[in-house]
Amino acid sequence: MIYSAQIAFIFIAITLAATAAQGQNVYKCGNSYSQTPCVDGKTVDVSDPRSAAQKAEADATTRRGAKAADVMERSRLREEAQMRAANRAAAPKPAKAAAPKKTKKEKPPEYFIAPHPDGKKAAPGSGLR
After folding, report:
1. CA 10 to chain centre
2. Bridge partners, residue 33, by sequence
3. Cα-atom radius of gyration of the chain, to the nearest Å?
4. What is the pTM of this model?
5. How far apart (Å, rounded) are the C-alpha atoms in residues 62 and 69?
C-alpha cells in the first residue's frame, strides 16, 4: 500500500509541475522559439483558446481518424498477404541445378614434410626436410 501511495504522490507532483509549466512565457527569436528572452524577441501567446467542448470534439475527431487509419492498415496488410500468396503460386519453380562435378582430390602424403625456411624444395636424399 505504501508503494502505491508513493506512485500516486509522484504522479500528482508531475501533474502539478506540468500545469505550472503551461504558464511560462515563450519567445520567438527570429525563426526559433525559446523559453528565455532574447534580443528583439517577441512574446508568443501559447495558451489554448478552445473551450472544453471544442477540445473534446477535436479529441473525438483524432480518435476517429486513428481508428480509420488502423482499419486501412489492416486492410492493406491483408491485401498484401493475398498478393504475396498469389505471386508465390504463379511464380515458376526454379529448375534444379546440376550437381557440381566432384574433382579428384590429391591424396595427402602419409607423412608430414615441413617446408624449407628459405622456401626452397629439398632435393631427394639430401637430408633436408
Report:
1. 31
2. 28
3. 39
4. 0.40
5. 10
Contact by Cβ (8 Å): 75, 82 = no
- Most confident of the ranges 35-39, 44-48, 61-65: 61-65
- The per-residue pLDDT for 17 is 61
d(CA 28, CA 34): 6
pLDDT at residue 58 is higher than 90: yes
The span from the CA of 4 to the CA of 13, in Å, is: 14
Per-residue confidence band for 121, with pLDDT thresholds at 50, 70 and 90: low
Distance CA 62, CA 68 (A): 10
DSSP string, the chain: -HHHHHHHHHHHHHHHHHHHHTTS-EEEETTEEESS--TT-EEE-------HHHHHHHHHHHHHHHHHHHHHHHHHHHHHHHHHHHHHHHSPPPPPPPPPPPPPPPPPPSS--PPPTTSPPPPTTSS--
